[in-house]
Amino acid sequence: MPVRGKRYLEAVKTVGPRQPHPPREALELVKQAANAGFDETVDVAIKLGVDPRHGDQMVRGSTTLPHGTGKSRKVAVITQGEKIKEAEEAGADRVGGEDLVKDIQNGWMDFDVVLATPDVMGMVGKLGPILRSRLPNKKAGTVAEDIGRLVREIKSASRVEYRVDKAGIIHAPIGKVSFSVDQLYENLIALVDALLKAKPASAKGKYLQRITVSSTMGPGVDVDVNEVQRAVGR
Questions:
Q1: What span, in angstroms and rounded, lies between the C-alpha atoms of 141 and 115?
Q2: Which phi-psi region, left, alpha or beta, contains residue 13 (left: φ > 0; alpha: ψ -120 to 50)?
Q3: DSSP H stretches of helix in 16-171
Q4: What is the enclosing helix (H) or strand (E) of 212?
Q5: Which of 78, 77, 48, 74 lies closest to 60 in space, CA to CA?
Q6: Helices (H), 16-146
Q7: Burial class (CB in 10 A: 0-12, 13-18, 19+), 8
Q8: What single DSSP character describes residue 37?
Q9: Neighbouring C-beta atoms of residue 222, cutoff 10 Å
Q10: For helices 23-33 and 6-15, what crossing angle results, to 10°?
Q11: What confidence tens digit (pLDDT) does each residue in 93-102 have?
């Protein structure tokens, strides 16, 4: 069992016993418990009733949060022709075609996310062994014809990607501790709404099983799943 520091133990006292809380109350507790010397990220962990070992139960995609995540990311775009200018004008940190692919193959990795347009997927495929889960693909929302819009969404930190892990859990940021409770709440609801829309047809039983929110350095706070689902209206 890991040894917890004094700051963490004080945060645990702030949130109290482990029990489900109404979503706004849970987020307020997360804010109160955050005591690090920086603006901590607020993360959510959502346990889904899926078995990701089956391909038809893999939940993966992206959505736009109304208040963003508070964290801008370095964006590289693989494209060609007129789309190069479109991506550059939208604020991409690096744009290129075969030259960018070669640089990545040679070890250049100074980016957080790679985007692409549909017409260059042939050259993008060469990066599969290198980028792996970060390889641009339509299902993850990192391949689009309107590349300028996609770049702007990511550079403004309004877009968040999600992918269920081996334990059936989605981990995603929903903002910063400096956000208001209402901003965090609206981001949480937007993410859950996207996950409900992405529910695999083959998923059986209860889909939303558990929701926990926490700050970067703080303890988890359980959220009342039923209240969140009612708020989403599904």
A1: 9
A2: alpha
A3: 23-33, 82-90, 98-105, 121-124, 128-131, 147-155
A4: strand 208-215
A5: 48
A6: 23-33, 82-90, 98-105, 121-124, 128-131
A7: middle
A8: S
A9: 15
A10: 150
A11: 999 999 999 9
| Single-letter code of the amino acid located at 92 | A
Six-digit token pair at 50? 């899926």
User: How many Å apart are CA 192 and CA 182, to the nearest integer?
Assistant: 15
Instruction: Give Cβ neighbours of residue 58 (< 8 Å, ≥ 6 apart).
Output: 50, 52, 164, 200
* 84 and 227 Cβ atoms separated by less than 8 Å: no
Amino acid, res. 103 = D
Q: Which two tokens stand for residue 7?
A: 């700051």
| Cα–Cα distance for residue pair 125/132, rounded to 1 Å | 10
Instruction: Give pLDDT tens digits for 170-227.
Output: 999 999 999 999 999 999 999 999 999 999 999 889 999 999 999 999 999 999 999 9
How far is Cα 177 from Cα 3, in angstroms, rounded to an integer? 25
Q: H or E stretch including 42?
A: strand 41-48
Q: What pLDDT is stored for residue 172 in this prediction?
A: 96
> Are the C-beta atoms of 57 and 200 separated by less than 8 Å?
yes
Read off the tokens for 139: 């299902």
For the chain, domains (ranges, CATH) are 6-69+158-232 (3.30.190.20), 75-155 (3.40.50.790)
Region of residue 175 (phi > 0: left; psi between -120 and 50: alpha; otherwise: beta): left
Six-digit token pair at 152?
Answer: 């702007």
